[in-house]
Amino acid sequence: xxxxxxxxxxxTDAQVYLLERNHTLGMKLSLSGGGRCNLSVRVxxxxxxxxxxxxxxxxxxxxxxxxxxxxxxxxxEAGLPFKEEDHHRxxxxxxxxxxxxxxxxxxxxxxxxxxxxxxxxxxIDLQNKQVVTNQGSFVFDHxxxxxxxxxxxxxxxxxxxxxxxxxxxxxxxxxxxxEVSLVSNDAIIQSKELxxxxxxxxxxKIKKNNKYKDLVRHDVIFTHFGLSGPGALRxxxxxxxxxxxxxxxxxxxxxxxxxNEQLAKEIKTNGLLSLAKTYGLPKRFLQFIEKxxxxxxxxxxxxxxxxxxxxxxxxxxxxxxxxxxxxxxxKTMQSKMHPNISFAGEMMDVHGxxxxxxxxxxxxxxxxxxxxx
Length: 373
Known about the structure:
- There is one protein chain.
- By secondary structure, the protein is of the alpha+beta class.
- Helix 1 (about 1-10) packs parallel to helix 5 and helix 1 (about 1-10) packs parallel to helix 13.
- The strands form six sheets. It has a seven-stranded antiparallel beta sheet.
- It has helices at about 1-10, 45-50, 60-65, 70-75, 95-110, 160-165, 185-190, 230-240, 260-270, 275-280, 285-290, 295-300, 355-370; strands at about 15-20, 40, 80-85, 90, 115, 120-125, 130-135, 135-140, 145, 175-180, 180-185, 200-210, 210-220, 225-230, 250-255, 305, 310, 320, 340-345.
- It is built from 13 helices and 19 strands.
- It has two domains: about 1-175 and about 315-370, 3-Layer(bba) Sandwich (FAD/NAD(P)-binding domain), CATH 3.50.50.60; about 180-310, no CATH class.
């Protein structure tokens, strides 16, 4: 949608067609943020690049051309202001994803973009500059592929874009689930003793050669299969490739801002269960530690958890992998092999954390692709 808007805004005399696979626009967008649509994030460009954990540096040029402020301004000028929530996440003040889609739909209509629904692209005929769909064919001077990744396949992003990219001589990396919950077969998970417990601001570390390296810090929830919540999702993007080789050991610090000395003193003076009142740790968790015996500090500051795999692409927020960025000009989003083809969004091998990053990446790269179409 943003690619089509940008293409028409910046090339007013051009005929712009948007080929939509579904019967309506924005099906995947409508699911974002639990239907509230976490459509951007208010951070510095440097932080945005850092939190785009897969090939973030590829976005340097694009992010200067269409900024996070520009995304906010686009919707605000259309009468849909944002509000900021925890971790700098931006939502429409109405808290309705449908209102975000309505702005995009109305802008497309006002600009005169031709929207064709229920069009499944079957083939890209480069020789004749034609897109062949289930309903016919369309001639193009410039083609932007913005087909999404392979997560949430029921919305239409089932990996078709990768097949089309391969048809046009581009390379596609291995596709893995990212921003997805973690699966553990450890006894503590199997016993379900901690199931349902949530912890804010947990420091998640990875254990390598008896050393602990910080990965992310965010909220987590113990589930019947392992670990979920934003902290687990972000961790998945760091370890999903390692999991292809075997299990990964994590260590969870539930009180990252509290020193071992402070904890030891509190436990010695008031007992382990006092941590429920002093630091807000769940009582059930503390009772579990007490029952285990051993050093309670280790359980609180370096809680061990072995991750064996992640949930599937069907449950992932985004796909890790896509069209190799070496095939794409980062300034224009154009293909280096076929300059009359551009790419945008998740089908490229670029993704960020949940929390507004991936929709922002889609808007940014979509705008740039349309500008240079």
